[in-house]
Specification:
Length: 242
């Protein structure tokens, strides 16, 4: 495989057999902050609690939710509503879940823009994995979207109890692929300090941001704002004939 592996552009000294991808903000839109706040406010109205407080409560519990420490989506909704003095019925919680899932599905639906590049990478012989910081709704509907068929492994933080840049979450993807870090690259938008984390693990790291997000104030937590490493303007730049 050494002689036939695709070469990753901008890092010509290394050949890679696989690429690990971030999900939100990289392969799909992470959603602009205005729309994100809007759907939280809609959830709050269904629950009968203060929209502003509920929005901030969901933002404040991000770390717990993506680590899987806040329970299911239903649990998270109840906990945030209860913290505001609410006591929603099962029907109210169900409607709030539907709003959250609908919003998440809209973001997942933007994946069509990434599919051609992913298919080109696979056709070139690269193996693919996803490593995502996400909460419960993402793995619940992952199989409903065509992204799922492009990846050999999908590591969701809320399922494994780890969040980037913890080296163990990258290692889980590498173990699933059966490859060392030296043979793999990581591509992400820089949230969660994921690029510096990937580089410290030994992965080749590339900054790439989903095109739709460049025109809005995209949602991004703990970004690699000082990243000076390799950057991509198009996923097709990952491949070169060298």
């Amino acid at each position: 495989m050494e002689g036939s592996s695709p070469r990753i552009r901008r890092d010509g000294a290394r050949r890679f057999d696989a690429v690990l991808f971030d999900l939100y903000g990289t392969l799909i839109s992470s959603g602009d902050k205005t729309r994100r706040r809007g759907h939280f406010q809609a959830m709050a109205r269904e629950l009968g609690v203060d929209p502003g407080g509920f929005t901030e409560g969901f933002f404040d519990t991000f770390d717990l939710r993506v680590r899987g420490q806040h329970g299911s989506l239903e649990d998270s909704i109840r906990k945030v509503a209860n913290s505001l003095g609410g006591s929603p019925t099962e029907a109210q919680v169900l409607r709030a879940v539907e709003i959250r899932m609908e919003y998440s599905a809209q973001l997942m639906g933007t994946c069509t823009a990434s599919l051609p590049a992913l298919d080109a990478l696979r056709s070139a012989g690269l193996r693919l994995a996803v490593v995502s910081d996400c909460s419960d709704e993402t793995p619940r509907q992952w199989a409903n979207f065509p992204l799922a068929t492009r990846f050999e492994a999908a590591i969701f933080s809320c399922r494994v109890g780890l969040r980037k840049p913890d080296p163990r979450i990258y290692t889980l993807a590498l173990e699933a692929l059966g490859l060392p870090a030296s043979r793999c690259a990581f591509v992400g938008d820089g949230g969660s300090h994921e690029l510096t984390g990937a580089r410290e693990v030994g992965l080749g790291a590339f900054l790439y941001r989903f095109p739709e997000d460049t025109a809005v104030e995209a949602f991004r937590v703990d970004g690699d704002t000082q990243w000076s490493g390799s950057q991509l303007t198009d996923l097709s730049e990952l491949l070169s004939s060298g």
